[in-house]
Amino acid sequence: MTEAPAETLRLSKRVIALTGCSRAQAERYIEGGQVRVDGEIVDRPEFPVSGQQVSLDLDVPAAPTLLMTLLLHKPAAAVTLDGASLIRAETRWDDDPSDLRHLRRHLARLSPLLPLEDSASGLQAYTQDGRLLQRMREEGSRIEQEFIVEVKGSIASYGLHRLGHGVEFEGRVLPPCKVSWQNETRLRFAIKGVRPGQLASMCQQVGLVVQSIKRIRIGRIPLAKQPEGQWRYLPIGEKF
After folding, report:
1. Does 214 lie in the same domain as 160?
2. Above 70 in pLDDT, residue 64?
């Protein structure tokens, strides 16, 4: 005689059976990351369960139900708009200092802020927050970004001064920016409102050829020591 297979239920119903709580409370437990299925956090009330072990971590505070912003160290040649292929649970930085509990919903409906060129690497932000996205579209040109640009060639006379005060792009003179040598082949730009192709064009006008571009800061948020291809949360309360 064989044992009948366990009935398949929504995870929320299993939590109700375990705790005697209401459906609304069961969904809060689940969406707050307090429910595990076979040891893994599941934050979907509709998740189907049958014979799996379901447990509750009620001694752990529920994760905040906030719209998240994620910070990726984008590899060169990766497509900025395709954040879903780069931001996955397994690519979260192990040393993420935010201490936020990761939930599956944090990876849904992400939009890039101040997108990088596909050929560039470095700090790329993605957000679920529509208000932040709109604000950055309206005010992003006023936020300073910092880039390390690898170049080759010989810079023209007064070329460093020209980079910061007077080269043109797309038919207009660019506003002043801060430019300095980091070493013999790397320039550091602190610049606002940078557009695709702009840094390469600026360097070309003073005799330099760009080899690579890496963004290391957006406003007050640095890339820091985050490894390439990994992401972290923007800590709650921190702003660009």
Report:
1. yes
2. no
Relative orientation angle of helices 11-19 and 23-31, to the nearest 10 degrees: 110
Which amino acid makes up residue 160? L
Domain encompassing residue 18? 9-56
The total number of structural domains in the chain stands at 3
Q: Is the Cβ–Cβ distance between 92 and 73 less than 8 Å?
A: no
Q: Tell whether the model's pLDDT for residue 3 goes beyond 70.
A: no
Pair (29, 90) in one structural domain: no
Distance between CA 42 and CA 15 in Å, rounded? 12
150 and 210 assigned to the same domain: yes
Condensed to tens digits (0 to 9), the pLDDT of residues 72-105 reads 999 998 888 776 788 998 999 999 999 888 888 8
Residues 6+ apart with CB under 8 A from 83: 70, 72, 110, 112, 124, 126
Q: Work out whether strand 9-10 and strand 168-169 pair parallel, antiparallel, or are unpaired.
A: unpaired
Residues 150-202 pLDDT 10s: 999 999 999 999 999 989 999 999 999 999 999 999 999 999 999 999 999 99
Q: Would you tell me how many other CB atoms lie within 10 Å of the CB of residue 84?
A: 11
Phi-psi region of 221 (alpha: psi -120 to 50; beta: other; left: phi over 0): beta
180 with 196, same domain: the answer is yes
Report residue 93 CA to chain centroid gap.
Answer: 11
pTM greater than the 0.85 cutoff: no
